[in-house]
Write a structure and sequence with these properties.
heterodimer, A: mainly beta, eight-stranded mixed β-sheet, 32 strands, B: alpha/beta, Rossmann fold, Hypothetical Protein Yjia, Chain: A,domain 2, seven-stranded parallel β-sheet, five-stranded antiparallel β-sheet, 9 helices, 26% helix, 30% strand
């Protein structure tokens, strides 16, 4: 039997000068922000595409829209964090030595945290012109990834040696030690687990309150993409060719076999559950964007398309009806992901 | 290993403080070769060249434990090289300069372990720049117990040794310094220079980590019977006839890398496997091993097993005896 799945339509919506390093979609008007390694940031709305009036020297590292307003945070290889909004313009709110590896907004939209080289910097955000650095902490090693807990009370920062936790202020209130180099971090929506994807081709998970941990290793490559399903039952892990889903219900994933989703020829460059659904979007370096509905024993691939360029990042639109994909050649594509 | 040759070559430049590394890099950047070169160096230098990119890095060493293999890699290099590979701006060569006190192993291992880097970049050669006038003094530096002599380590890892500041030594001094280098690393090509001026073909695009070129290994040192028992880092060459049992060599190499991997800095060789008319070529850095069947042996060619180990506290007799026990005996064929 030939498995059938839907082939998706896609359109190019912008072209930047170099590889798209980061993409974000705003809560207000579904505006898309894309940052490239040439340093420019484009804001793409239904009405127009705007190139922001500043650049990050040597490339953009991260773009992230506020979860509550129309403020965009950007960071780059110049070690600078800027805020921008269409009405207020832009302002530098923090800087440091090293590249910006990530920017995370607290859920209330009143604080951002950024990993800049070996530092994590936090900024209290009022408006673009009304934001001030509130804390800064030096790590021994590069801060590679960061995320707030679902309730916004703590900030977790991954660097070589484990995950460090902050409340307000610059002191580490807790540390989950582990001798390894995390590359990405993801909190389960129910606030129970934190997982890191690592350089040594493993994932490491900790129970947030007890600190009990477990590790799944033996992947073919380093793990750069993780995401939890909205019910916090499955942890999706992107590796080469396969996406694996670990079941954290009941006794947890220890000793179990993950659900495997095979549909990519090369490594994953994006992996994300659709907001409030069990659909998963994945993009592989070979050019394919896939939509999955994992169902054991049945075909999980619902739809896919090859966009003809190497994707480097991808996110869902706010309404979950399309996937915005950035490519190595600077392309920004909108894939119509409305599946039947 | 992925040997599709679209991979971009990376040359690692090591050398003790003041040996002439930066001068070499300046020479590479300013020489009229029409190549686009990216340099990853340890501190901001004063190099500003139109057609090149110079990025500063701060050495960040990660220990990686993956099953039975443990090794160290440079986390900073993984990030920088990964970023460089994504750009539209493409280069012909990448040079990585290490600090004067760096152990070259994590740099080399980065290119062998990280899958993303391995698929796009290949380690071309480790070039060690030494100061002909002061090398012996650095080699003889007495370190505290447990502290490595970096000058010795950097020589042990080298594929090419730039014997720099050669104009500052007498012929006799030069002979002695070459002899000392050879005791540590019998395999590297030694190139005398002044002001690090070298024909770039001899240091770029060398292919020292290319398995296909292990064959070009010069076996001349094998006749060198000079021993210096008090030297902790040495080269051991083995050259013998016979056919190798796949099972036995696997067992032995597995044991050797597991037990002695931290002491073996580099190894490479060509083996005559029983039942295979192709040469088996291999190379390794500490516990990382890479081997593959290569070209068939030529008609009438003497099928000799040749290999070289460079490392700490190597016991020539023991290595040779254990290797010979991997040979298929006439009776068991």
């Amino acid at each position: 039997m030939v498995a059938s799945h839907q082939i998706l339509e896609f359109t190019e919506i912008a072209r930047l000068r170099d590889c798209i390093e980061s993409i974000s979609v705003s809560v207000v008007d579904d505006c898309i922000a894309a940052g490239s390694l040439a340093g420019e940031v484009a804001v793409i709305s239904k009405a127009k595409t705007l190139t922001l009036p500043f650049e990050h020297d040597f490339g953009v590292g991260a773009v992230a829209w506020s979860p509550t307003s129309n403020i965009l945070a950007t960071g780059g290889m110049d070690g600078v964090i800027r805020l921008w909004s269409d009405s207020e313009g832009d302002a530098t709110v923090a800087s440091g030595k090293g590249w910006v590896a990530g920017i995370s907004w607290r859920q209330d939209g009143k604080e951002i945290a950024a990993a800049i080289g070996k530092q994590v910097v936090r900024v209290a955000v009022g408006g673009v012109a009304d934001s001030n650095e509130s804390a800064r902490h030096d790590f021994e090693s590069t801060a590679t990834c960061l995320a707030y807990t679902t309730n916004g009370q703590r900030l977790g920062v991954g660097s070589y040696g484990g995950v460090s936790w902050f409340e307000t202020g610059d002191k580490i209130v807790r540390h989950f030690p582990w001798k390894g180099a995390p590359l990405t971090i993801s909190m389960s929506p129910n606030g129970k687990w934190v997982a890191t994807g690592n350089q040594d081709a493993s994932i490491h998970c900790w129970k947030l309150w007890s600190g009990d941990d477990l590790q799944m290793s033996g992947y073919e490559t380093k793990i750069q993409h993780l995401d939890w399903d909205p019910n916090s039952r499955y942890l999706a892990v992107g590796s080469v060719a396969d996406i694996s889903l670990w079941d954290f219900s009941g006794r947890g994933p220890k000793g179990s076999k993950p659900i495997q989703l095979a549909g990519h020829a090369r490594h994953a460059v994006a992996l994300k559950y659709q907001p409030q659904s069990q659909l998963i979007m994945s993009a592989g370096a070979e050019g394919t964007v896939c939509i999955w509905r994992p169902s054991p024993g049945k075909q999980s691939l619902v739809a896919n398309v090859n966009i003809g360029e190497e994707p480097t990042c991808a996110v869902w639109s706010r309404d979950g009806r399309s996937v915005i994909v950035g490519t190595a050649l600077g392309g920004v594509f909108e894939v119509d992901a409305h599946v039947v | 290993m992925n040997d599709n040759e679209n991979r971009l070559p990376v040359t690692v430049v090591t050398g003790y403080l003041g040996s002439g590394k930066t001068t070499l890099i300046n020479h590479v950047l300013t020489a009229n070769h029409g190549k686009r070169i990216a340099v990853i160096e340890n501190e901001f230098g004063e190099i500003g060249i139109d057609d090149a990119l110079v990025i500063s890095a701060e050495e960040e060493i990660f220990e990686m434990n993956n099953g039975c293999i443990c090794c160290t890699v440079r986390g900073d290099l993984i990030r920088i090289l990964g970023n460089l590979m994504k750009r539209k701006d493409k280069f012909d060569y990448i040079l990585v300069e290490t600090t004067g006190l760096a152990d070259p192993a994590p740099v080399a291992q980065t290119f062998l372990v990280d899958d993303e880097i391995r698929s796009q970049l290949k380690l071309d050669a480790i070039v060690t720049v030494v100061d002909a006038k002061h090398l012996i003094q650095h080699l003889d530096d007495v370190k505290q117990d447990g502290v490595e002599n970096e000058a010795v380590e950097q020589l042990a890892f080298a594929d090419r040794v730039l014997l720099n500041k050669i104009d500052l030594v007498t012929d006799a001094e030069r002979e002695e310094v070459v002899r000392r280098i050879r005791l540590i690393n019998a395999n590297a090509e030694i190139i005398p220079t002044t002001m690090s001026k070298v024909d770039l073909d001899r240091v770029l695009g060398v292919g020292a980590f290319d398995l296909n070129r292990v064959l070009e290994m010069e076996p001349e040192f094998l006749s060198d019977t000079e021993h210096q028992h008090d030297l902790s880092i040495t080269s051991v060459g083995i050259d013998c006839e016979g056919e190798v049992s796949v099972q036995k060599i696997n067992e032995w190499l597995g044991w050797l890398l597991g037990e002695r991997g931290t002491d073996i800095f580099r190894m490479k060789g060509i083996l005559n496997m029983w039942g295979d008319n192709r040469r088996f070529v291999f190379q390794g850095v500490h516990m990382l091993f890479d081997g593959t069947p290569g070209q068939p042996w030529a008609e009438g060619e003497a099928r000799r097993n040749r290999m070289v180990f460079i490392g700490r506290n190597l016991d020539r007799e023991d290595l040779e005896r254990r290797f010979k026990s991997c040979l298929v005996s006439e009776t068991s064929k």
